[in-house]
TrEMBL record:
InterPro entries: AAA+_ATPase, ABC_ATPase_HisP-typ, ABC_transporter-like_ATP-bd, ABC_transporter-like_CS, MetN_ABC_transporter-like, P-loop_NTPase. The keyword Nucleotide-binding applies. It comes from the Bacteria. GO terms for molecular function: ATP binding. It is found in: Cell membrane. Residues 2-234 form the ABC transporter domain. This is ATP-binding cassette domain-containing protein. PANTHER family: AMINO ACID IMPORT ATP-BINDING PROTEIN, L-CYSTINE IMPORT ATP-BINDING PROTEIN TCYN. Keywords: ATP-binding, Cell membrane, Membrane, Nucleotide-binding, Transport.
Length: 238
């Protein structure tokens, strides 16, 4: 579903991604872990063209991603951020309908029907007519997930979706993501929730200084880490 070859990204002199090769299969759930500043967000942002890469190739669904196809790519690749970025002046259901209406030119009844289904899926149908400010962080993040799903993406990228949440709200968001994983969605998730990664990931990738330092099954990574940097990282976080 995604194939990344030799991806390099610089910010000025600083080489933030130093030759990333990564293939993600359909229905695969990949968790990215690593220290702050190691390049995890930049990697996701390059996949979605929120950052322009300096070198390398990205294929999505077999198609080489080019700058000119940016709108098409953004439809195929959904993204959920640490901060939910909902439209504050729109109700919950309007937030979910917005992409399909404006980008996909879906008719209003169909968009509404789909939004209702998605809000049901994330357990928020009762909040459909509220404004985001009235919702808890966990509820807002679930709306953000529904909004992303409304575009029917092939892949969803999550960048620390629970890091901005109060601890008691983390579970409800991870629960929704777990459901998506079970549905066979293709997902790449940057997370510090190691228990979650252990449970849902098909593969865990440890990024260190802009390179893939180790990858494997959750058991490989958490129970039998080989790379010393990974051992240190896990020692700090667990
Ligand atoms: P992570 O998500 O793993 O914490 P990031 O991808 O956010 O890491 O950042 C990797 C490195 O790139 C850091 O050193 C960060 O300061 C730098 N960086 C990220 N975004 C920018 C930017 N827009 N301009 C300059 N430097 C940046
Ligand atoms: Mg980050």
């Amino acid at each position: 579903m995604i194939e990344i070859k030799n991806l390099h990204k610089y910010f000025g002199e600083l080489e933030v991604l130093r030759g990333i090769d990564l293939t993600v299969d359909e229905s695969e759930v990949v968790c990215l872990i690593g220290s702050s500043g190691s390049g995890k967000s930049t990697l996701l942002r390059c996949i979605n063209f929120l950052e322009e890469k300096n070198e390398g190739e990205i294929y999505i669904d077999g198609q080489l991603v080019l700058e000119k196809d940016i709108n098409e790519i953004r439809q195929k690749v959904g993204m959920v951020f640490q901060r939910f970025n909902l439209f504050p002046h729109m109700t919950v259901i309007q937030n979910v309908m917005e992409g399909p209406l404006t980008v996909k030119k879906m008719n209003k009844n169909k968009a509404r029907e789909q939004a209702i289904e998605l809000l049901e899926k994330v357990n928020l149908l009762d909040k459909a007519d509220e404004y985001p400010a009235m919702l808890s962080g966990g509820q807002q993040q679930r709306v953000a997930i529904a909004r992303s799903l409304a575009m029917e993406p092939k892949v969803i990228l999550f960048d620390e979706p629970t890091s901005a949440l109060d601890p008691e709200l983390v579970g409800e968001v991870l629960g929704v993501m777990n459901d998506l994983a079970k549905e066979g969605r293709t997902m790449i998730i940057v997370t510090h929730e190691m228990g979650f990664a252990k449970e849902v990931a098909d593969r865990v990738i440890f990024i260190h200084e802009g390179q893939i330092a180790e990858e494997g099954t959750p058991e490989d990574i958490f129970d039998r880490p080989e790379n010393e940097r990974l051992q240190n990282f896990l020692g700090q976080i667990l």
